[in-house]
Specification:
With 257 residues, the protein is α/β, with parallel strands linked by helices. It has one domain: Rossmann fold, CATH 3.40.50.300. Helix content is 31%, strand content 16%. The protein contains 7 helices and 7 strands, in the order αββαββαβαβαβαα. The relative contact order is 0.18. The protein binds guanosine-5'-triphosphate (GTP) and magnesium ion (MG). Belongs to the TRAFAC class TrmE-Era-EngA-EngB-Septin-like GTPase superfamily. EngB GTPase family. This is Probable GTP-binding protein EngB. Necessary for normal cell division and for the maintenance of normal septation.
């Protein structure tokens, strides 16, 4: 049974408002904890429209981005599961908002949301507009949303629709909503292209973090998992862990090959 409105009770996680509930684990074990936590992901529900989404109080993290950017593949990679989210070569594969619950010992302490991609040329205009409105509403009104992961294929850069989305979420990011741009399919870039893509995206990210990611080369997985874990489990302000938050390595180097 998934608790849809009950906050976690194990003393180690947070409410969507960001109110901390417990101390962080030792820094060294964070990567292992984050990875184990991601692996607990289970399908929760699917919603064709916003009003079909269950109201939740646990922190929710949304994956957004152009069609075919690699959102579903990223969720499968982070959760170390082959077919949790539907990934496909064909753009437009994900058509609903799909929620996946996370949490150990059957206690859901966060939710991942895999959103349909935008910008797929073959989608009829009316459907595109409908979807843009659904997504804008979701990003602006979803109360338990604590963070957004924007997947961006660095070979295309941030598109006009990505920029529109950035504008929509900017006020919430200013209020504390977490924001990460993952430059996907980094395996397609050489070192120089990767460095350039990172610098450009950082200028556009408006204070959010930018990291390289490759499902194929398993690049950026630990960093992304740890960041998401931290978003869902913010530290208590007056603990030593809060005074010295875990530094995340900058995964700016591509795998050597
Ligand atoms: N080379 C490479 N291909 C990838 C990577 N991640 C995803 N892909 C491929 O990109 C294609 C699209 O992946 P999806 O995960 O379905 O993309 P999506 O963003 O969920 O697409 P929609 O659901 O249509 O919005 C698939 O063929 C994946 O195998 C990656 O890191 N490297
Ligand atoms: Mg998808």
């Amino acid at each position: 049974m998934i608790p849809t409105s009950t906050p976690p009770t194990d003393g180690s996680s947070a409410s969507p408002s960001g109110a901390p509930r417990g101390p962080q684990p030792p820094l060294k074990s964070q990567a292992v904890i984050a990875s184990g936590w991601m692996h607990t992901a289970k399908f929760l529900t699917t919603a064709p429209q916003l009003h079909h989404l269950p109201p939740l109080t646990v922190p929710e993290i949304a994956f957004v981005g152009r069609s075919n950017a690699g959102k579903s593949t990223c969720i499968n990679t982070l959760t170390q599961q082959k077919q949790l989210a539907y990934a496909s070569k064909k753009p437009g594969r994900t058509q609903n908002i799909n929620l996946f619950s996370l949490g150990k010992q059957g206690v859901t302490d966060a939710v991942l949301a895999d959103l349909p991609g935008y910008g797929y040329a073959a989608v009829p205009k009316a459907d595109k507009i409908r979807w843009q409105q659904v997504m804008a509403n979701y990003l602006v009104t979803r109360e338990n949303l604590v963070g957004i992961v924007m997947m961006c294929d660095p070979r295309h850069g941030l598109t006009e629709l990505d920029e529109i989305l950035l504008d929509i979420v900017r006020p919430r990011v200013a209020e504390g909503l977490k924001f990460l741009i993952l430059l996907t399919k980094a395996d397609k870039l050489n070192r120089e292209e990767a460095t350039k893509a990172l610098s450009i995206a950082r200028l556009q990210a408006g204070g959010g973090e930018v990291k390289l990611f490759s499902a194929l080369k398993k690049q950026g997985i630990d960093e992304a998992s740890q960041l998401l874990w931290q978003w869902a489990h913010p530290v208590v302000k007056d603990t030593p862990a809060a005074a010295a938050p875990a530094p995340l390595d900058e995964p700016e180097n591509l795998d050597e090959d």
